[in-house]
Structure formats: structure tokens, C-alpha cells
Amino acid sequence: MERDPSNGAGRSEAAPPGASPRDAAPGRIPLAVAVVDAGGRISHWSSGARRLFGPTREEAIGAPAVDLMPVTGALGGEEWPGRAGPAGGMPAGPGEGGGLDHLDAYEEPGLAASLGGRTPYPTAGRARMTLGAAGPGAPLGGPPPGRRLGEGLPAPALDLLWWAYPLVGPGAGRILVLAADAGKLDGERGRERGGHERWMPAFALHTDFPGAEELARRLPEILPSMSPQESARIVSQVLELGYPVLEISRQERFPVTPDWGVPRRVERRTRLLRAANAAADDPRSAAEAAEAAAELASDLEYAAVRERLEFLNEVSGRIGSSLDLARTIQEVSEAVVPRFTDVAGTYLREQVMAGEGFPDGPPDATTMWHRVAVEHNDEPGRWDDVIPVGEAMPFPVHTPFFQCMTTGQPVLVPRITEEMGNAIAAQFEKRDISPLINGRSMLIVPLKARDVVLGFMILLRHPERTEFNDMDRVTGAELAARAGLVLDNARMYTFQENVAETLQDSMLPRIAPRMAGCDTATRYLPGTRLGRVGGDWFDTIKLPGSRTALVVGDVMGHGLNSAAMMGQLRTAVQTMAALDLPPAQLLRSLDDLAQRLGDGYLATCLYAVYDPIGQQLTMANAGHVPPVLVRAADGRSRLLELPTGAPIGVGGVPFEAVTVPVEPGDRLVLCTDGLVEVRGKDIGVGLAALAESAAHPAASMDDACDAIIRALNVTDDRKDDVALLMVRLNGIPLHAVAEWRLAIDAREVGRARALVGRQLADWGLGPAVETAQLLVSEVVTNAVRHAHTQHVVLRLVRTDALLCEVWDDDHALPQLLNAGADDESGRGLRVVSRLAREWGTSRTSSGKAVWFEQPLPRG
Questions:
Q1: How far apart (Å, rounded) are the C-alpha atoms in residues 625 and 262?
Q2: For the CA atoms of 685, 690, 693, 698, what is the dihedral angle to 10 degrees?
Q3: Cα angle value 308/314/316 (rounded, 5°)
Q4: 3 state DSSP class of 519
Q5: Do the beta carbons of residue 583 and residue 643 sit within 8 Å?
Q6: Inter-axis angle of helices 769-786 and 748-762, to 10 degrees?
Q7: Would you say 70 and 109 are in contact if contact means Cβ atoms under 8 Å apart?
Q8: Spatial separation of the C-alpha atoms in residues 639 and 625, rounded to whole Å
Q9: Which contiguous run of DSSP H or E holds residue 278?
Q10: From 50, 75, 192, 546, which residue has the greatest number of CB atoms within 10 Å?
Q11: Which residues are registered as beta bridge partners of 659?
Q12: Distance between CA 213 and CA 783 in Å, rounded?
């Protein structure tokens, strides 16, 4: 039992003359505090409970209360899950309940608690528990700190006093349990009185003893780390039902107050001063008083440091559960409210929010700060409209916020005066925040990483709460340092994510869902969480003659190096395809390029050319996974047998092309090995599964791709990238194609205009005739002028647009020129560029081709 020098708590002398036996000075003994929820499980476990019973907070929270505390009478027996006490709700008697022994079981008359009947009365009792014993009441963690069981010695017993309050109203808590070690009190009383006193737990209303107002004011400190709303609900019921007291031999009532934890520095100095004054009044007790004062100071200092370290350790464990910047900010805010502060506002620099690089230079009065989180325990919505999340604003030089962000040190304002509050409120246009901040204690802590201020947190406490002090400033600085490190990790991860997304956007193609004679659908799934791009790629390239090149490739390896290599090879394939190289020759040229780039350039590649007019596929393979062809006629699928070839970069291996006839409606599925390879299984199993899943009907091309991904069980824990390209080969019917041979004669230009006019009229495209004739005139004129010995070929293809192609035997590609006022030529391609939706030129095996697309008229 601890003594309070100011009020004589702990004295066992009789009451002064004229005093009622109910009168007594407030005392102070260490109490264990626990809260039990409606399911009979622990929802709150104080440090005093850990010292008394043994289990840590982590072990106790969620555990059945009857397994931790011998207070079965408080738990209502039948109403709570787990083991029930004997009839009447009293603690277990000798031999009952495992490690519990009945000792002077006591219950104040008329105060039995019964949750089943909802009787709003507290109950009290006394019981004995055996430390380290199994069964009800045995601590999960063994003996409490400081209690060690010697080998061969009987387990020590704990003489326990307990008080239990039934709780009503909103909230998870349904019983508040207070407990104390009666053995220590008996020993101390015995030393003072020379005998054994009988201590009985009871209750007394706060009006029954002097000093009640002081106790009522400090009563919320019973439940540290609990939210103000929850503690206020419990405190109001304790005030109504009565304080826990000890009755000494039924003659003297002793009000009991809890072990308040860590007093403030002012209170500690007051206690030490009183101890010194007592020593001065009585020289005989000087040594004893000095020793007690020194011991008290040491204990309080140790408890203060320990409590701060426990708080920082708990906060560190709660933040940083993810690398998401927004989630991290929310975790930091929730960790400090309400335990450390009542309001927490977090501001971050603009560059941090944008996921850019590290902010350059120190912040100044023009630096924009984004309010990213506001956490509080005030009334709902009180801060939301006045201080909205997402607002960006600078802070003037004269404000404490500017001082914090420029010095990188915490700024403490013990109490915001009305003048300071009005000055701060002046920064917020059309909003008066002074009622929210005036009179509050404020602490501003910087969020730093590598000596750079990323942001800061504004912490505010209610006027009724203890002001921030120097120890709070140190705690807040340490908290901000840990939070700043977590935020910087999240910022760097966000920056890497942005880099990866930028790389993905630049390297993965934007494939049109519809091209001449075919529809396409794609899927790309990166195989690494550190970047969204790997070495897999796919592409579709428009070729002369309404053809389309289909490409799928896979660079060996993972990460950004493979992605960079993939970008180079993909660009090379596009360049070579523009030269209209045959598939086998293109792979041969790509292999030569890879060897010149370096020894590490190894990749597989499948290159196919689809001719929708000739209804055929021409393919060449360089060590890649074979494609799957699904026939529209019967819905069957099969792997196409192609000469495998060696991967790109090996060198010295020939490539061979294969031509496969196809029909309108057939589907071609191309993929990388990440889709079909499963560790520990043969790749043939994956290829068979691919062929089977590709044959299943689907409502759309996208649905068909998703069905394949699901069927092959592509999960997030895969190690390889997945690229999937599906093409529906629609073909172009012959009646939608018109082709003519023109002589190398300037008079053929007029004939070409006439042919185009009649054909468009036959197709019902009369509104497009005038523009088409003008564009054909310019393109054919250029071809006739530069052709040499062969004829000129003019072709019109009608699909979703009108495609016009002109071939000649000149290898020089025409260029778009700036024609002057006196120039006689150079304006033709400028007219084509202005009127056509799309146009281009490419080389062919015999010369060149110039083409343009014209949108079809509506209707």
C-alpha cells in the first residue's frame, strides 16, 4: 500500500473524535484495471493488471476473463461463456476452479451484480489465486514480473481484493473490474498495529468522504489509452454507483483511489517538497523521508520513461503496414488520437503528394502544403467543413508552422491565446477557425527524412486536458521521426510506381481494337511487384496491302534491364516491318541486331503476317511458344506446328516461314511462356490447357481473354510476366476490294479519278467521291511521275474506312515538303495530309506503296 504524505492515507488509527465511522481520508493503492465485453472476453487491460496477474496486454486482450481473474462472481456465471463459478455468483471455493482457493469470500449486502437481470449494482469480493496454476484464474504468461517460482517450491498464492461495476449504454465494455493485492495490505497493517486486520472490499458514494471532488476530477485517469467517449461513459457510472473502498474490521471505511500512473512534473515536485517539509518538522524521520522521496522520484521517473517508450513502441507497430502513401498517413493520424492528442492534422509538401523526386531546397513562404488527413475525437463533422482534407495552402513567415518547417524542430505552444488564434485563423479565407483552436495546447512536429522536411503534423489538445510539456515535445519529435521515415519509404515506393507506370506507357503499345480485316484484344500482367513492366511484349503493325503484322516476344530475365532491352527490340521490329520484310528475313535481321547490341540480348519472338484478302497467315518462330488457332467452323482449337528456331541473339541459326490458310471468324491466340509454364510441371500441360480454354465460346474478345487467364490460374504470386494477344481473323471479302493497273502515262490520272468515282457509287458511297477523287489524283500523279518501267497499281478496300493504296517501282519514298508560292510541285502530299484521316508510305520488294484512309460517310 502506497502512502500519500499529504492526506495521511494508509493510517490505521481510529477516526478522530466526532467523526463518523464512515469518514476517512482518501487513500491510494495500486489497482489493476480490466474491462470485459459482452462475450466475457477482456477488451481493456491496464499495466497494473499485467503487474498483478502476469499476462501482457497482447496476451490478455480477447482472452476469456474467467481464465485470467478469480472474479467469477462479477461475471454472472451463466450469462458469460467459459467456466462459471458456483451458484450465487461467488468466487470458487477450495478445490474448485483449478488454481482458485476461496478466502473470506465477501459481498456487500444488496449489491450483487446480475447482468442477466440487468440489475445495475456493483459487486465486490475477495479470493485467492495460485500463481502459475492451470485452470480458471491462472495467468497466461505465468507469474507476474518479479515473481519467480523456485524448483521444488509450492506455487505462491495471491490474496486478491476485487470490485466490479456493471456498465450499461453504448460501447463494447460490459463490466469494469478493479483488483488489488490484499496480501501486501495485511502485511503492512500487521507491522503498524502488531496484528492482522480484516480488509473487506465495499463501495461508498463520493459524498461519504472529504476530497471527493478531487477524486472525481482524476477518476478518468483510471483508464489511460482509452478514448474520451468510452472513459466518460464508464466514469459517469462509477460516480453513480460509488467508489471502491476497504472496510477495516467493519469499523473504518477507507476510500480507494487507483494508481494514477505517471504524475506530472509539478505534482512530483510537490510530493518531494512535502516529504522534505515532513523531515524538517520531525528530525527523527529525516532519513526515512529522504529515502522515501528518493525512491518515489526514481519510481516516477522510471514509470514516465517506460510509459513513453511503450507508447512509441505501440505507435511504431501500428504504422507502416503498407507502402501506400494515403494508408500510411491515416495510420499515423489514428495512432496518436486520442491517446496522445485530441486533434491531428497532417500536411505534406506538393512534391511528396505528386510522387515526384525529393523536394529541392528548404521550404519557404511560397511552398504549398497539402492537408492530407485530419483526425479528431470531437463531434462528427466539426472539423470537416472548416478544415477540409485536400486543401493546399502556404504558411506565412510569422506563424509557428513556418518555424517548424524551416528549422525542422518541434514547436510547442502551451496554450493558444486569443490573439494567436485570430492570427492563425486569418490565413483561412471565409472561414473562422478560432473557436476550434483558441485555448488549446498545440504541438507542431516535423515529418523529416534524411534531414529534409516532407511535412508536419499539428497536434491539439482540448482545453480541459493537460497541456503539452517538454516530455511531450520529445515524445512528439521521436514519433514524427519514425513517421517521417515510414512516409519517406512510402514516397519512394510511390515514385518507383510512377516510374514503372511511365515506362509501361512508353513501351507497351496502344493497339487499336479493330484493324483492316481483324479484331484484337490483349492482356499484360507483370510478374514482379517492384515494377509494372518486364521483358514481354506484343504488337500489331499495319502493312501495305491491308495486311497486319502480329508480334509477340519475350526477353529473357526480369526487371528494368529486361524492359529496356524489350523496348529496343520492339522498336527494331517496327522499323523492319515498315520495310515489309518477310517474316523469316525479319527474324534473321533482328538476330543480327541483337548480337551487335551485346551478348546479353536473348529473346524469343513470334512474327506473323495476316493477309485478310488472301485469307492466309505467314509465320516465323524464334524459340517462342507456338500459337493456337481456333477454327470458326467447328470451334476446335489446335497448336500450330511451326519450325521452332533458336532464340534471338544466339546467332548462326536459320529461320523458316510457314503459311497457314485461314477462314473468316477464325481466332489466333499468341502468348508468352509466363501464361503456360507452371513450376514443376511440363510446359505441354500448360499448352494443352491454353488450347482447351481458347476453344470455349465467349461473348466478346475481352471476355475470351479473361476466360483464358482464369482457366490457366494466373495468380499474383507468379514470377514471370504474362503477355496475351488474341486476334479474330475476319478477312475482307473480294466484293469489298477493287484493283486496277494503270499505265505510266499522265493521262491515266483522269482515268483513275473516273474509276474511283464509279466504284464508290456502286458501293453506295456517293458523298465520299469528291474527296476520294482529289486524293487519288494527287497520289497517282506522284506514282506516274516517278515510276520507271512497270505499271502502277491502284487498289480500293472498303472496311470500316475507305483504304486507297498505290504501288509503283520507285524505291524513293515521297516526303512532305514546304512548297513556296512559285513552286510548281510539292503540294500533293500536303493535300493528302490535310484531307485524309491517316496516310503513310512504305517500301515493298519491288518499290514503294503510298496509302491513305478516308472515313466513310454516315449512313
A1: 70
A2: 170
A3: 100
A4: strand
A5: no
A6: 150
A7: no
A8: 10
A9: helix 265-281
A10: 75
A11: 618
A12: 105
Angle between helices 265-281 and 286-318 (to 10 degrees): 170
Q: Reduce the secondary structure of 80-147 to three states and give it as a string.
A: CCCCCCCHHHCCCCCCCCCCEEECCCCCCCCCCCECCCCECCCEEEEEEEECCCCCCCCCCCCCCCCC
Q: Which residue type is seen at 192?
A: E
- CA 851 to the chain's CA centroid: 51
What's the grid cell of residue 787? 515510276
Distance CA 27, CA 43 (A): 28
DSSP, res 342: S
Q: Please tell me the distance from the alpha carbon of residue 785 to that of residue 806, in angstroms, as a whole number.
A: 13
Tell me the three state secondary structure of residue 563.
helix
> CA-CA distance, 27 to 456, in Å (whole number)?
44
Measured in degrees and rounded to the nearest 5, phi and psi for residue 496 equal -65, -40
Question: Largest Cα–Cα distance of the chain, in whole Å?
Answer: 137
SS3 content of the chain, % helix, strand, coil (to 5): 35, 25, 40
Q: From the CA atom positions of the chain, what is the Rg in Å?
A: 42
Q: How far apart are CA 76 and CA 80, in angstroms?
A: 7
What's the sign of the alpha-carbon dihedral 409, 413, 419, 421? positive
Roughly what angle, to the nearest 10 degrees, separates helices 559-578 and 583-597?
140
Domains in the chain with CATH codes: 32-256 (3.30.450.20), 319-495 (3.30.450.40), 508-729 (3.60.40.10), 735-855 (3.30.565.10)
The predicted pLDDT at position 249 comes to: 63
Bond preceding residue 338 cis, omega within 30 of 0: yes
H or E segment and range at residue 448: strand 441-449
Q: Which three cell numbers stand for residue 737?
A: 476490294
Tell me the one-letter amino acid at 794: L
Among 112, 66, 104, residue whose Cα is nearest residue 85: 66
Instruction: Name the CA dihedral angle for 397, 402, 406, 410, rounded to a multiple of 10 degrees.
Output: 140
DSSP codes, 180-222: EEHHHHHHHHHHHHSS---EEEEEE-GGGSTTHHHHHHHGGGG
Residues 6+ apart with CB under 8 A from 11: 25
Write the single-letter amino acid at 814.
P
Burial code (b: 16+ CB inside 10 Å, e: under 16) for 526-541 equals bbbeebbbbbbbbbbb
Residue 595: CA count within 13 A, CB half-sphere: 13
Beta strands in 809-847 (DSSP E): 838-843
Cell numbers for 563, please give them: 524492359
Closest CA relative to residue 797, chosen from 841, 748, 730, 735: 735
Check the CA dihedral 103-107-112-113 and report its sign.
negative
Give the whole-angstrom CA distance, residue 478 versus residue 443. 13
Q: Helix, strand, or coil here: 71?
A: coil
Question: Position of cell 477523287?
Answer: 773
Whether 717 contacts 707, CB under 8 Å: no
Residue 815, SS3 per DSSP: coil
10-residue mean pLDDT series, the chain (859 residues): 32 34 54 87 86 87 85 54 33 32 36 39 79 42 38 61 84 84 62 54 66 66 69 77 74 58 44 56 59 56 65 70 73 79 85 65 80 81 77 83 87 87 75 81 86 85 85 83 79 74 71 86 75 78 90 83 84 89 93 85 93 94 94 91 89 90 94 82 85 87 90 70 91 93 91 94 92 92 86 91 91 75 69 88 85 85
Q: What is the pTM of this model?
A: 0.54
SS3 of 565-604: HHHHHHHHHHHHHHCCCCHHHHHHHHHHHHHHHCCCCCEE
Residue 120's alpha-carbon distances to 79, 84, 112, 207, 370, in angstroms, are: 15, 20, 9, 19, 50
Report pLDDT for 131: 59
**Positive or negative, the Cα torsion across 189, 195, 198, 203?**
negative
- Beta-strand ranges (E) seen in 337-440 are 343-349, 369-376, 392-393, 411-413
